[in-house]
From TrEMBL:
Species the sequence originates in: Hirsutella minnesotensis 3608
Name the record gives this protein: Dynamin-type G domain-containing protein
All copies of domain Dynamin-type G, residue ranges: 36-315
Pfam family, one: Dynamin_M
A GO molecular-function descriptor: GTPase activity
Keyword entries, A-Z: GTP-binding, Nucleotide-binding
Keyword hit for GTP-binding: yes
Cellular component per GO, a single term: microtubule
BP terms from Gene Ontology: endocytosis; intracellular distribution of mitochondria; mitochondrial fission; peroxisome fission
Length: 567
């Protein structure tokens, strides 16, 4: 694939120090540490016709549409990445995320191809040549290659204040939202472009950048069209002071820069650079320091800002390395000494078993002094507290939702606050009892009594009907109890899983943990859960099949009292 762009221009944006930082970052990333996720991007902010696209063109030597009545209608991102293979990818990122990105097949790219790509993108976005529309969609041109360094340049639509034949107020809102969305990103280095032919106080772009970067730590001011000012007039003198960063109301921490835009009759970018150099040597603008004028100086200034940004992002890498080194050492310690004999392996497993027994016993007895259990407000690993809270929730749910029907409005029963928060994390989602009245219940029982008469005397209660009614009322018991068993089993298993991971190491880094969990722990809890379910069926069987009649306490104690008197 053929990619023909001026790499010398981009090399000037990446100083030797920045390239060295990138190489260090790449080596660290290959080890899994120090990945820079906040790489800088250069965005241009300014009003329409201020020369924003010309500034980007001068910096990158990629031809942005800059002449005539051409107006930037959407954001264009030029993304460079370092890679072993050369690749060009052109896509449209839709503001509506439900729409998939649209890609264009490109077999190569040269510095003159961008205007044609932008025209294609306009058609895809539904923007015609005479349209007043602006788009929130983003044209993204990604170029990868072995000679590239990570960098993103963003050309944005120009800010405007009033409606014209070419632009609507709806378009103004779209542009403002789009520009502000890039300005608020902390990795955006903002080039605020203002033209020297306009009153300094009237630049809306200056007001916007001060809003999003009040300390001006990521803003560079760029003055364009210095050749169109009247020599010796106040306006020229004012802007020269601004370019020197000596205008008190508009001082920027990163300073200002002045560029002369390429005229339409200047065919090549080399002609543009020569004309710019001659202008700054022969005009009043020659008093501006060499480092603050001309495109070569701007590239150097940007390279320093990019370097500082990358260096700041690498500030936390040392800590990242220390953390990961400590984790690796802990993983190595968990692996223990080499185990070459059966005795070594047995000793290793016995040490794991002893530590497991100690911490498991503490968890069951509610002794949480070991660091494994966390601090005072940590709950996840405190097994006995977890099980007790599960049992309290189970009791509360049985009392409030364990019966099928409720006669009259139930009294409002609220769980304690600590139990409410626990239940929010472990919801027992069961329906409330169906409400009925005493009258409705009596009528239904009379009907059911008549339909279920047996050999009992007339007027005597039907034992069979009582049993069926009890079975109906207690029908929610089993599902609530089964759910409780599953929750308690999961909590106990999670505790054991965390305990083995703590003692031995994570499964993805220690096969011993994975083996113990998959072969021993999973099978153990599956078997125990089934035993608990079998026990539940045994406990519920008399009530489900009607073999036992529940007695009230008064009746039960009364019978015991009669037996005692007879004795």
């Amino acid at each position: 694939m053929d990619v023909n762009i001026d790499l010398d221009a981009f090399d000037q944006l990446n100083s030797p120090e920045a390239r060295a930082l990138h190489e260090v970052a790449d080596r660290l990333s290959s080890c899994g540490v120090g990945r820079i996720v906040n790489l800088p991007q250069i965005i241009v902010v300014g009003e329409q016709s201020a020369g924003k696209s010309s500034v980007l063109e001068a910096i990158s030597r990629v031809r942005f549409p800059v002449h005539g009545n051409v107006c930037t209608r959407f954001a264009t991102e030029l993304v460079l990445r370092q890679a072993n293979d050369t690749r060009v990818d052109v896509s449209i990122k839709h503001a509506d995320q439900s729409q998939p990105s649209r890609s264009f097949q490109k077999t190569g790219f040269s510095e003159d191809d961008l205007p044609g790509i932008i025209q294609e993108a306009k058609q895809c976005m539904g923007i015609s040549g005479d349209s007043r529309d602006f788009s929130r969609d983003v044209l993204r041109l990604e170029i990868e290659g072995p000679s590239m360094y990570p960098l993103t340049l963003v050309d944005l639509p120009g800010i405007f204040q009033s409606e014209t034949a070419e632009q609507s107020m709806k378009g103004k809102h779209i542009v403002d939202e789009l520009v502000e969305s890039y300005m608020k990103q902390k990795n955006s280095i903002m080039l605020v472009v203002i033209e020297a032919t306009k009153q300094l106080a009237n630049h809306e772009a200056l007001k916007k950048v001060k809003e999003y970067d009040p300390q001006s730590v990521r803003t560079i001011g760029v003055i364009t069209k210095p050749d169109l000012t009247k020599p010796g007039y106040t306006a020229e003198k004012t802007y020269i002071q601004v370019a020197k960063n000596q205008e008190s109301a508009n001082k920027l921490q990163l300073g200002w820069h002045v560029l002369r835009n390429r005229a339409e009759d200047e065919g090549s970018l080399e002609d543009r650079d020569e004309t710019e150099d001659l202008f700054f040597q022969t005009s009043a603008w020659s008093s501006v320091p060499r480092g603050d004028r001309g495109v070569a100086g701007l590239r150097k200034k940007l390279s320093r800002v990019l370097f500082d940004h990358i260096r700041q992002n690498l500030g936390g890498v040392e800590q990242d390395i220390e953390i990961q080194l400590q984790e690796r050492q802990q993983e190595r310690d968990r692996l223990g000494k080499p185990r070459t004999s059966p005795e070594d392996k047995r000793s290793f497993l016995l040490a794991i078993a002893a530590e497991f027994q100690r911490l498991a016993r503490d968890g069951m007895h509610g002794r949480y002094s070991d660091a494994f259990f966390g601090g005072l407000n940590d709950e996840e690993r405190k097994l006995r507290a977890q099980i007790r809270n599960f049992n309290r929730v189970f009791d509360f749910i049985l009392a409030t939702k364990g019966h099928k029907e409720q006669i009259g409005d139930p009294k409002c029963q609220l769980a304690p606050e600590y139990l409410t928060s626990f239940q929010a994390n472990h919801p027992y989602d069961f329906p409330l009892p169906e409400l009925t009245t005493q009258k409705e219940m009596s009528a239904r029982l009379q009907k059911q009594a008549a339909a279920n008469q047996g050999s009992e005397f007339s007027g005597s209660p039907s034992q069979e009907l009582v049993i069926q009614l009890f079975q109906h009322q207690s029908s929610p018991w089993k599902s609530i109890a089964e759910y409780h068993i599953s929750q308690v089993t999961l909590a106990a298993k999670a505790f054991v899983d965390q305990l083995f991971k703590h003692i031995i190491g994570l499964p993805d880094t220690n096969r011993t943990t994975e083996t113990i969990l998959s072969l021993c722990v999973d099978a153990f809890f599956a078997e125990r859960e089934q035993l608990l379910r079998n026990k539940l069926d045994e406990i519920l069987k008399p009530y489900a099949q009607g073999y036992a009649i529940p007695l009230s306490r008064r009746e039960l104690y009364g019978k015991e009292e009669k037996v005692t008197k007879k004795e």
